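Ops channel
N.P.: pipeline sanity check, posting one input/output pair.
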């Protein structure tokens, strides 16, 4: 999930970590979109990390231990704890961070109260919860607001960044505790593959790969997918690609660019799928868009 461009451009994905420096405020919101080849060395960081995983699954390695991580989990990693993120390469993670320094904690009474409370409440090495329903949306909105204020700058924005940290830590305290030995439900697994399709529709995706993510056969996955969406995998993927291609056509007017960016390597196949789903060719669609724009200008 790209907080700034959700549902639009496919995001740039990293094969290695970025190591940003904290700004003068001591707080930084940062997104890391991992590729299927992402790799990271064990490393210590001089700041605390609040981390949300909106997409993918993997683990957090520390010492000789490994903590499984999954979609819509929120965790806190204290400063100077040596660790690294390891992705499941069939479903690489997107990580959204709020970094904050020890000085920020010293200046904020609420953080001084919340951090020890988190440490005492959780049996796991790191405070971690699963986000459900409104809490998931609330955490997403907090990060979006913090990103916006980070870009604006100024004392008012810095105050909102501090408030965002407090809100995120409260969600950690009030979130659903995780039993890391429990397996995810089939429904949760299917939802995870829908997220995968949303972020990787422009790449080659097979039913076999999606089924393997869920640990079930291709036939069983296809049946569950159709029950969940009302469409086959091919229909669902084609619809997502054509919708994206229409966006690119409206923005650029370039048919080849729209086809390739939406995941079609064969222009003939693109024309055939586009015609089947929209009852018009890409060229006819562009003509319709141009006609509509002329009418709107005339009015």
């Amino acid at each position: 999930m790209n907080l700034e461009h959700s549902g639009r451009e496919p995001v740039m994905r990293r094969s290695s970590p970025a190591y940003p420096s904290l700004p003068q405020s001591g707080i930084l919101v940062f997104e890391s979109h991992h590729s299927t080849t992402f790799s990271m060395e064990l490393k210590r960081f001089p700041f605390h990390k609040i981390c949300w995983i909106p997409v993918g699954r993997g683990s957090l390695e520390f010492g000789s231990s490994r903590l499984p991580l999954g979609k819509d989990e929120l965790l806190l990693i204290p400063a100077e704890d040596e660790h690294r993120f390891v992705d499941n390469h069939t479903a690489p993670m997107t990580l959204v961070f709020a970094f904050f320094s020890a000085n920020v904690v010293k200046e904020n009474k609420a953080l001084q109260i919340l951090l020890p409370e988190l440490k005492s409440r959780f049996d796991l090495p790191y405070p971690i919860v699963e986000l459900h329903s409104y809490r998931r949306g609330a955490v997403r909105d907090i990060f979006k607001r913090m990103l916006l204020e980070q870009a604006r700058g100024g004392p008012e924005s810095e105050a909102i960044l501090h408030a965002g940290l407090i809100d995120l830590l409260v969600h950690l305290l009030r979130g659903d505790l995780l039993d890391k030995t429990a397996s995810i439900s089939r429904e949760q697994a299917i939802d995870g593959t829908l997220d995968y399709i949303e972020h990787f529709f422009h790449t080659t995706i097979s039913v076999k790969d999606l089924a393997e993510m869920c640990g079930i056969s291709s036939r069983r996955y296809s049946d569950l997918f159709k029950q969940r969406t009302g469409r086959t995998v091919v229909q669902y993927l084609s619809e997502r690609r054509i919708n994206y291609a229409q966006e690119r056509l409206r923005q650029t007017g370039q048919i080849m660019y729209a086809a390739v960016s939406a995941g079609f390597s064969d222009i003939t196949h693109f024309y055939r799928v586009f015609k089947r789903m929209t009852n018009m060719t890409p060229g006819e669609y562009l003509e319709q868009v141009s006609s509509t724009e002329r009418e709107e200008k005339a009015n």
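N.P.: looks fine end to end. Strands lie at 27-33, 48-55, 58-62, 65-69, 73-77, 84-87, 94-100, 128-130, 176-177.
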